[in-house]
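Re-run with default settings, no changes from the original entry. Doing this only to confirm the output is reproducible before filing.
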Amino acid sequence: MPSASGGVRKQYRLGVIDRSTLQAELQSRWAKLRGREDPNTRIGAETPGKRLSFWALDGIDLDIFRGERVGIIGANGAGKSTLLKLICRITAPTEGEIDIWGRVSSMLEVGTGFHREMTGRENIYMNGAILGMSKAEIDACIEDIIDFSELRAFIDTPVKRYSSGMFVKLAFSVAAHLQSEIMIMDEVLAVGDMAFQQKCLTRMREAAEAEGRTVLYVSHNMATIRQLCERCIVLDHGKVLYDGDTEHAIAAYLDQSLGGSDVDLDLGARSRPRQYTERAVTMTRLCLENKVTAVYVPGEELRMRLHIHVERPVPRLCVRLSVRTDTDVGLATAWSEPFAADRPGEMAVMLTLPAGSLAKGTFYASIGLCRRDEIGSMIPCDHITRAFRFEITGSPLWNTHAYSYMALPEMRVDTIK
């Protein structure tokens, strides 16, 4: 039953950290205490000022109880992995305390905790010994671990020859079956195949419900968060943005990453993936035409006016619109016909998407610009993930859990005589 209380904070320093050797570090500190010049500073180098630092966690205060299945979500850099490393005692908090009742088994990275020269069987015994289990206790569960991992044919092979998927299978099997009260998983199931992912999710649910083990699960896959977790924590820049019901947590995370659900969106300041830092064309504004709120009735068209800044002419430009559910599951992608951005400056295009195939629900749309090259391939030019959110109302008789979000056209029936 872990409990992080008292406002836990973790600070990291940016840039080069201290000296390369202990001797150089002691020389520099002794010179500083005597008020003399640092003997390890290069001739002509400027005296370093105060090092920059940032707070990876800034005042986290949580109570997590025995048997809970807790999801931890947030954007990259929000502090998820740092929080798990503090709980696992890999690193210590700068301020505050973390109290843990029980042994912790964790999977923070693929291959962590394994000795590459040892076999799979030897690594099982080593991990059990680290958790304080005796050889007899490990013997009692090792066959279950091997069976669950589906690696019996390779269990006496050095793990340095394992693929990343095999690493995940063995590591999860060890973490799930050894005698620990707390299981911590950090985005590791994304490497495994779909069938093994479902097997792992079922095992974690059983560990919490039947064995009373606490499960902390970090993932960017909202579908697995929704499937496993009964409680979810949203982190943003080292702070707790939301802590509570999983559905509300997912909505808070998506709203936070989206930055609102307006019908007139400023795209110029929105963040882009790094590969789009040099752009010939840039999306600057998106307007949902003739809408006060982004709510549509079944069959209504999505009409969007997209403003584009053209830095360099692009003769064949296309717009790509990807639609995802409120649990971040991809549904469909629509492409526009090619058009010319033939001169530098500002331009606007009108996009119309028939939404008749989408049933009742809340959806998120990502939008991007691509240019078609001479052989017909699409080259990305600009992209914004979850650019806007929209909702389609519908009949309460439509059950999205049973029938999905796609309402396909009615099938034609021909009578055969």
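DSSP finds nine helices and 19 strands in the chain. Residues 316 and 375 are 12 Å apart (CA to CA).
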